[in-house]
Amino acid sequence: MKKVNVVGAGLAGVEACYFLLKKGYEVHLYEKRPTKMTPAHHTGYFGELVCSNSLKSKALDNACGLLKEEMSLMDSLIMKAAQKTSVPSGNALSVDRDEFAKYITKEIKSFPNLVIHEEDVSDFLDGVTILATGPLTSDELIDKLSKVIGEESLFFFDASAPIVKKETIDMNIAYRKSRYDQGDDSYINCPFSKEEYDLFYHELINAELANIHEFDKHYFEGCMPIEVLAKRGYDTMRYGPLKPKGLQMMDRPKAYAVVQLRQDNLANDLYNIVGFQTNLTYKEQKRVFRLIPGLKNAEFVRYGLMHRNTFICSPKALNDDLSLKNNPDVFVAGQLSGVEGYVESAAMGILAAIFASNKLENKKQQLPPITTIIGSLRNYIVHADPKGFSPMNANFGILHGANKHNREECIQKSLTDIKLYWSKINE
Length: 427
Ligand SMILES: Cc1cc2nc3c(=O)[nH]c(=O)nc-3n(C[C@H](O)[C@H](O)[C@H](O)COP(=O)(O)OP(=O)(O)OC[C@H]3O[C@@H](n4cnc5c(N)ncnc54)[C@H](O)[C@@H]3O)c2cc1C
Known about the structure:
By secondary structure, this protein is an alpha+beta fold. The chain has helices at about 10-20, 65-75, 75-85, 95-110, 140-150, 195-205, 225-230, 280-290, 315, 340-360, 375-385, 405-425, and strands at about 5, 25-30, 55, 85, 90-95, 115-120, 130, 155-160, 165, 175, 190, 255-265, 270-275, 300, 305-310, 325, 325-330. It has two domains: about 5-160 and about 310-425, FAD/NAD(P)-binding domain; about 165-305, Elongation Factor Tu (Ef-tu), domain 3 (Beta Barrel), CATH 2.40.30. Helix 1 packs parallel to helix 10 and helix 2 packs parallel to helix 10 (about 340-360). Flavin-adenine dinucleotide binds near residues 120, 133, 135, 137 and 345.
């Protein structure tokens, strides 16, 4: 029986195990809990949800909903567990978190070809390994990883600014310009009058914050949440990320403050709001950030967030098959691989397992189509701009060929293509 290691029994790790166990491999699963807990886990169960009990929308016209459907078609364990343990929550798929994790643990443990090691892994293991240790990976392993991929390819804090779709920015109000006309006109600028700034400032400093853990409250000065910066004083943002200097236009009234948006993907259809990492709830981000002139109808493909999160700079460190460029026996899955969210992390667990299995069988790698959400997530993390890279969640902005007019067509195509891919994988 061929042997494979999986480190971490979180959402990505259990999906990887499930695929490999069904294929008949001898799977060595390393998990440090319950002997050693992370700051966010509370139990020894596999697949524990660390925060919300929601796996987000069930609707197929929601990218995370579509991703879940693709995963169901790939026989995902997380999806089975969620169906079995769901609780009523309207259009969302929410679960009883204990029952969910218990179901997963029981299923995984039922395989006779599983060997469990209750161990805090601090070094790379021999042989083909899937690394799925998540955003709170133990420090010793982080040290080892940083030696292998280079310190500059490993991030410890996730401070991502919201990302909006370019086509939803009102370019009658916003304009293109780089500060002091240096370089090209790659930034989109949203100018405030004093009255607009006053309203925005007031709403921002009074907006509702998301619950954050104690260990998430230690900010780096260089990536301070925008509301924390604003609370330091009325003008602080105007001397920081909203500085209007060098961004004035001759044919327009003088701007009191300017928010800049920077291109976020190679397709040039997504823009992030520069300096707007935040702890505001998603609902408040939508309400308050839409007060920025030009963003009244902005569609958010990812909201800003801040929490301790270890993830690698995947475009630099990973091959197309999620293996490390500097050690192709190690496949990275889950949040560590540069995706964001429970479902997305689990999805990368399935892919890492497929790729690890292909490697063990000396088979040519088969990448999932980029017309699927799972395929576009993989494609995004390995091919995004490494500069300022931050984790990505499922959204239609990264789906190949998608625009706001062809949603239904894209959904059907993704489902057809994932079925085809899955049948090829199991040939
Ligand atoms: C505080 C916090 C809250 C979050 N809230 C949400 C949310 O509400 N919704 C959402 O969609 N996403 C949320 N996320 C993001 C992300 O989706 C989850 O963290 C998700 O659990 C990631 O899945 P994973 O499999 O990559 O990692 P995890 O589920 O964290 O699994 C990693 C596993 O590896 C184990 N491990 C770590 N290091 C070692 C080691 N050296 N040796 C052995 N075992 C090890 C851990 O004990 C853990 O069981 C949150 C993240 C954090 C940090």
